[in-house]
Amino acid sequence: MGAVGGAIWHGIKGFRNSPYGERRIGAITAIKSRAPVLGGNFGVWGGLFNTYDCAVKGIRKKEDPWNAIIAGFFTGGSLAVRGGYKSMRNGAISCAILLAVIEGVGVAFNRMMAENMKHEAPPLPPSQPSEPSGGVAVAA
């Protein structure tokens, strides 16, 4: 996903920043030089996040939105380790807030869909098995 998104992003950026006669070449050059970097960064972020997410699920023994928020906090902090304590703190908080927003939107969307399901026609009751011939019910 990161490589495809990076190809689109850097292709447009390279196209726009190149002189008029060399726009196609500029776009291709930008894609070849920057899209793999963005794809690699996306892969590292995804790998760290999933590792922390599974670890948090294992420790908490729960499946809820807090797992993703905590995993985002650890991921943001881990990725900023080389920048020092303040950079780790800011990265951890920023990533946790980003994941909280994503999880909040997901919860709100699920509630909205649940409300829509309530207003639809109720499902039909399950059909009763017919009685065997002779009208005598057989106990199982």
Automatic annotation (TrEMBL):
Q: Identify the domain of life.
A: Eukaryota
Q: What is this protein called?
A: Mitochondrial import inner membrane translocase subunit tim17
Q: Name one Pfam family in it.
A: Tim17
Keyword Endoplasmic reticulum, does the record have it? no
Record region (Disordered): 119-140
State which residue ranges cross the membrane: 66-85, 91-109
UniProt feature coiled coil, ranges:
none
Q: Which PANTHER family match?
A: AT05822P-RELATED, MITOCHONDRIAL IMPORT INNER MEMBRANE TRANSLOCASE SUBUNIT TIM-17
| UniProt record similarity statement | Belongs to the Tim17/Tim22/Tim23 family.
For the keyword Mitochondrion, the answer is yes
For this chain's UniProt record, which GO biological process terms are given? protein import into mitochondrial matrix
Compartment(s) of residence: Mitochondrion inner membrane
Q: Which UniProt keywords apply?
A: Membrane, Mitochondrion, Mitochondrion inner membrane, Protein transport, Translocation, Transmembrane, Transmembrane helix, Transport
A single Gene Ontology CC term: TIM23 mitochondrial import inner membrane translocase complex
What membrane topology term does the record carry? Multi-pass membrane protein
Gene Ontology molecular function, alphabetical: protein transmembrane transporter activity
